Amino acid sequence: MIEEAQLPLSHRSVLLNDVVKWLNPSKGGQFLDCTFGGGGHSEALLQANEKNFVYAIDCDPSAKQRAQNFSLDHGNFRFYQINFSEVGCLRLPPLDGILMDLGVSSFQLDDGDRGFSFRHHTPLDMRMDNSRGITAADFLYKASERELATAIRDYGEEEYWKKIISTILGNRKNPDMKYADSFAKIVSGCIPNKRGQKIHPATKTFQGIRIFINDEIGSLEAALPILFDKLAMDGRLAVISFHSLEDRIVKKFFHKMAGKAIDRFDDKPQQDRISYANILTKKPITAEETEIDNNPRSRSAKLRILEKTRNILD
Ligand SMILES: C[S@@+](CC[C@H](N)C(=O)[O-])C[C@H]1O[C@@H](n2cnc3c(N)ncnc32)[C@H](O)[C@@H]1O
Fold first, then answer.
1. Which residues on neighbouring strands pair with residue 277, listed in sequence order?
2. 265 neighbors 198 (Cβ within 8 angstroms)
3. How far apart are CA 301 and CA 68, in angstroms?
4. Helix (H) or strand (E) holding 306
5. Which of 239, 224, 247 is nearest to 312 (CA)?
6. Do residues 36 and 83 lie in contact, with contact meaning Cβ atoms separated by under 8 Å?
7. Does ligand 1 have an atom closer than 6 angstroms to the CB of 200?
8. Cα–Cα distance between 241 and 251 in angstroms, integer?
9. What residues have CB less than 8 Å from 210, skipping those under 6 apart?
C-alpha cells in the first residue's frame, strides 16, 4: 500500500493502490505515465522498485514545471510535454506498463487563472495545453449550434442542453460570457434550480465544453492503438476514465484487442477475430467508500486493465 503521506505533492491520485497492484511495478520494468498531472502515479511506480524507469507525458505546460522539480529527485524519469495522441513520435523501449488517468488534475481545477472552475473570476480558457487551440470563451463565441450540442448534450450529458444553447446564442455579445464565474451564472440562471442539488448547475456544461475544446475523445481514440503497440509482451495498459463516453471507448478498444465483439451490433464471425490481449478486469474497478470520502473526484473513476499477449504484426 502506498501511503498518501509518502507522496511529495498535496494532490490525491485516484485508485493509486489499484494501479500499483495491476501494473505490478515492484517486479521492475519500464513504464509510461501518459497523464503526469501532479506526479502521484509516477511517484508510486518509481517507489516500487529502484530499477524502474518512468517516462511521463502531459500536455499542460504547468505539469512540465512540476515534472522538472520531480526529476530533481528522480534520475530514472523523463518527461515529454506533448499530447498523448502524439506518443507515436517518441522513441520508447517496449513498455511493461502504461497508465492513462484521464481528465483534468486538481492543479488545473484549483488554478484560478485557467478558467476550469466556475468559482474564479478569470478568463474562460479551459485549455489543458494553453499554448495552442481555442479558448472556451472563443468557442462559445464562434461555435455552431451543432458543435454546442456535441459539447453540452453529448459530452456534458446536460439535460437542459437546448435551453443552455439558446441562452449562449442570445448572449454571444455579452462580455460576461468571457469569464468563468459570470458564464456559470448565465448558465445557472437559465435552467431550473433543483432543490438539494449537490453539484453546481453549470458543472455539466463546463465539463462538456472542456472535453470539446481539448478534443479529449479524439485524443483518447487516437492514442489507444499507438499505446498498445508500445507495450512489451505481457505488458499492461491501465486506463482510468471519469466519463461514460471515455469508458465506452476504452471498453470497445479492449474488446477488439481481446478478439471479442465490441458491442451488440458487432456480428463478425468469431473465427475471423484475432485476440492480441487479455482483459484482466471483467468489470471496471471503482473506488471504495473510504477513497470516495477522502477524494470525491474518485466517485466516478473506472479503471480497466488490458494485458498484451500477441503483437499485431505477428
Ligand atoms: C487526472 S490528471 C492526472 C493526475 C496524475 N495521475 C497524478 O497522479 O497526479 C490528468 C492529467 O492529464 C493531462 N492530460 C489530459 N489529457 C491529455 C492529453 N490528451 N495529452 C496529454 N496530457 C493530457 C492533464 O493535463 C492532466 O494534467
1. 308
2. no
3. 28
4. strand 302-308
5. 224
6. no
7. no
8. 10
9. 104, 116, 126, 136, 216
With a 6 A CB cut-off, is 156 part of the ligand 1 pocket? no
Give residue-wise pLDDT tens across range 3-54.
333 333 347 899 999 999 999 999 999 999 999 999 999 999 999 999 999 9
Ligand 1 site, residue 211, Cβ cutoff 6 A: no
Report the percent of the chain where pLDDT is more than 70: 96
3-state secondary structure of 95: strand
Cα–Cα distance list, 126 to 110, 180, 264 (Å): 12, 9, 36
Residue recorded with cell 456559470: 184
Contact 217, 246 (CB under 8 A): yes
Q: In order of start, what are the domains of the chain with their CATH numbers? A: 4-107+216-308 (3.40.50.150), 130-213 (1.10.150.170)
Helix 180-190 to helix 161-170 angle, to the nearest 10 degrees?
A: 120
Residue of 11, 12, 15, 58 with the most ligand 1 atoms within 8 Å of its CB, for mutation: 58
pTM over 0.90: yes
The answer to whether 25 and 95 are in contact (CB under 8 A) is: no
pLDDT digits (tens, 9 = 90+) for 156-181: 999 999 999 999 999 999 999 999 99
Q: Which of 11, 18, 35 to mutate to test the pocket of ligand 1 (most atoms within 8 A of CB)?
A: 35
